[in-house]
TrEMBL record:
N-terminal signal peptide: 1-30
Keywords: Signal
InterPro entries assigned: CHRD (IPR010895)
Species whose genome carries this gene: Candidatus Burkholderia pumila
Name of the protein this chain belongs to: CHRD domain-containing protein
Domain CHRD: 31-152
Keyword Signal appears in the UniProt entry: yes
């Protein structure tokens, strides 16, 4: 079995230590997860042709399972008729409605709150939910975006970067200095002139 080099083992140990420290820090702080979705017509299934765009910003309180959200949008084909959270579904698939936005809150920015079930929490934290805004011209949805957790600490980012850098250095091929190699091989090697009648072997052996 191939053993890891020392710098790889050090990077792995440092990565796990940072991640563990991050997890302890998060658990000690308020249990709030930040979520985000980029709402685009190209994310609809099938994709829509529209100039519409939007952003969903949300937070989830894990203690009371409360989702709080704000969605802003612009340049849609017409007034918003409905908006929902859907799931569970990955990018490129459709799913049923999980949370509906109130009819009186459809204007931008639309704001609201919802208490989630355990299954809805599991799907949301796994990135298996999306936010969908519908219009009269696009009754199944004009802009959509996958809702993903966006709160990643600098410790986690640093740990992932260090691990990736160590793995790249392990598999990288050594670079060859072409110019230096050419300069070295182009040097002339001068051999001593051997007098007539002498043999090179005699000179080499020191017998002459």
């Amino acid at each position: 079995m191939k053993r890891c080099r020392p710098h790889i083992r050090w990077a792995l140990a440092f990565t796990f230590a940072l991640l563990a420290s991050t997890a302890m820090t998060i658990s000690a702080q308020a249990d709030t997860v930040t979520l985000k979705a980029n709402l685009q017509p190209s994310s609809e299934v099938p994709p829509r042709v529209s100039k519409g765009h939007g952003i969903l910003d949300a937070t989830f309180d894990t203690d009371i399972k409360l989702l709080t959200y704000t969605a802003t949008y612009a340049d849609l084909s017409g007034p918003v008729t409905m908006a929902h959270f859907h799931g569970p579904a990955p990018v490129g698939q459709n799913a049923k409605v999980q949370v509906s936005v109130e009819k009186n809150a459809l204007a931008s920015p639309m704001k609201g709150q919802a208490t989630l079930t355990d299954q809805q929490v599991t799907d949301l934290m796994a990135g298996q939910g999306y936010f969908n805004i519908q219009t009269q011209e696009n009754p199944t949805g004009e802009i959509r975006g996958q809702v993903m957790p966006s709160s990643m600490s600098w410790q986690s980012e640093l740990a992932c970067w260090m691990l990736q850098k160590s793995m790249r250095s392990e598999t990288a091929k050594p670079e060859i200095d072409v110019q230096r190699t050419r300069a070295h091989t182009s040097r002339r090697v001068w051999l001593p002139r051997v007098p007539r009648g002498w043999r090179l072997e005699d000179v080499r052996d020191g017998s002459m």
